[in-house]
Amino acid sequence: MRGFRVGEPYRPLALLLIAGAIVGIAWALLVPAWQAPDEPAHFGYAQTLAEQGRLPAAEGDKRFSTEQELAAEAVESDQLAANPLARPEWSEEEYERWRAQQAALDPGDRADGDGAGPEGGNSARTNPPLYYAYELVPYYVASAGDLFDRYYLMRIWSALLLLVAAAATWALVRELAPNRPLLQLVAAAVVALQPMAAFVGSSINPDALLVASFAVALWLGVRVICRGLTLAAGTALCAATAVAILTKATGYALVPGVLLALGLGAWRAGVGARVGSLARAALPLLALAVPVGAWLVYARASSRPAVNQVAAADAGIDHPGLFSYIWQFYLPHLPGQLPLPTNYPSLPALEFWLKGFWGKFGWLEIELPNALFAVLGTVTALALIGALVRVFRGDRGRNLRVAAFLALVAATLVGGLHLTEYRILAGENGVFNQGRYLLPLVPVVGLACAAALSLLTRERWRAVGAGALVGLLFVAQVTALAVVGARFYA
């Protein structure tokens, strides 16, 4: 019985993770092949790494392998993508034809894609390799099967990363509210049951590892700020940041916040020990600098881009134009401002940051109902306002330090997205931003929900509020699965 009692505080988290695993598997199996953003490119990258032991090339004749091209043709993925009127190919005759083609393939037909080609090549080839190395495990486990055996096992394996993010968010809130298991569970539930996080996380997409590494880094950063810097904690924090950077260039958004956390953790050691603390702060940076530096050196030596690249203007930044763009992203157009491009939505912040964050699926052609977006947007706004109020209650000094760390990470991420898109718009190369790019901040939303609930003075009210929030997440999740299912199978 004693052993059972020791485990009792973790039982709700364990049950939540089981529920999250079920949700992830449901998404992985429900969405037809190649109908998640950039999934063909990410699978092609992983297959090149698995079959040829190298990263996709910048030059060559064939973007994807013969095996992948045949599978995509069999399910008519190109015709289905972003076309709400199209439906997947389910005929038995087509399936048998594809099986015969698959059986006739030579082993080399898995390895004849070089990542480049006349159509611009594999769009993911400039990504760092860490996520694709992670996906080698299911690829090799299912290597005796056909492509779709490997494909769907890779999706399920990717979905497990969202459970890491949920557990790290639980630990983050536990660091700030150690005796509030309800708040810990609510924050983790926001991550585990967020519809877009589940959809993206259960596809073959490096954003799954990015969200997980951000969550771990945010937890460890808060831990260092609250407890002070130790060599182990600082090294773990820097290693998590390195994982994020080696997954996607978005991971660099963690660096300013991590440096702040290390500095605050060193300062917490006290005046007499600050010299030693600063030395301890420098040593963990090796866990960040060494792997990231090795990737930068390798990328330069092999003439590869060191970070993800997008089509952007080569001209310098026009600061008045940048200010005008950011203003119109969040606020109405003012007289004298250059209008945004005609293909830009009329309310960008709502379209991208609200709808795109909570529920735009497939190749962005599937959305949650507007009424549900209104409810989710209202709850998100109330949670952020409540979290801001909570900062100035209780241990104000600690809360302000933690808030500064989280705000710096969020501001760096959002600022980088805006700067990238502005350069793209200036080069007349189309819209860049998508709500899924904010998914690394979903642990912050979970923390904000927990902080807002903590303002309720009675335990019963908090329980009701937590139940309502988890119920809303469940409704959003079921609705998301329903609209996606209707899009592809009705």
**Quick one: overall form?**
globular
The total number of structural domains is 3
- The side-by-side strand order for the widest beta sheet comes to 1-2
Structural class: mainly alpha
Instruction: Give the SSE string.
Output: HHHHHHHHHHHHHHHHHHEEHHHH
From the alpha carbons, calculate the radius of gyration and give it in angstroms.
Answer: 23 Å
Count the DSSP helices: 22
Biggest sheet layout? 2 strands, antiparallel
Give the assembly state of these chains: single chain
Describe the protein's architecture and organization.
- The protein is mainly alpha-helical.
- The protein contains 22 helices and 2 strands.
- It has a two-stranded antiparallel sheet with strand order 1-2.
- The chain has 3 domains: 1-30 and 161-205 and 344-490, no CATH class; 37-145, no CATH class; 207-309, no CATH class.
Identify the notable features of this structure and list them briefly.
490 residues; 1% strand; mainly alpha; disordered N terminus; 2 strands
What layout of secondary structure does this protein have?
Blueprint: H1 2-7, H2 11-30, H3 39-52, H4 66-74, H5 77-80, H6 92-104, H7 130-134, H8 136-141, H9 147-176, H10 181-193, H11 195-201, H12 207-227, H13 231-245, H14 254-267, H15 274-282, H16 285-301, H17 319-330, H18 348-358, E1 360-361, E2 366-367, H19 370-391, H20 396-426, H21 442-453, H22 459-489
Antiparallel strand pairs: 1-2
Helix pairs in contact: 2-9, 2-10, 2-22, 4-6, 9-10, 9-11, 9-12, 9-21, 10-21, 10-22, 12-13, 12-14, 12-20, 13-14, 13-16, 14-15, 14-20, 19-21
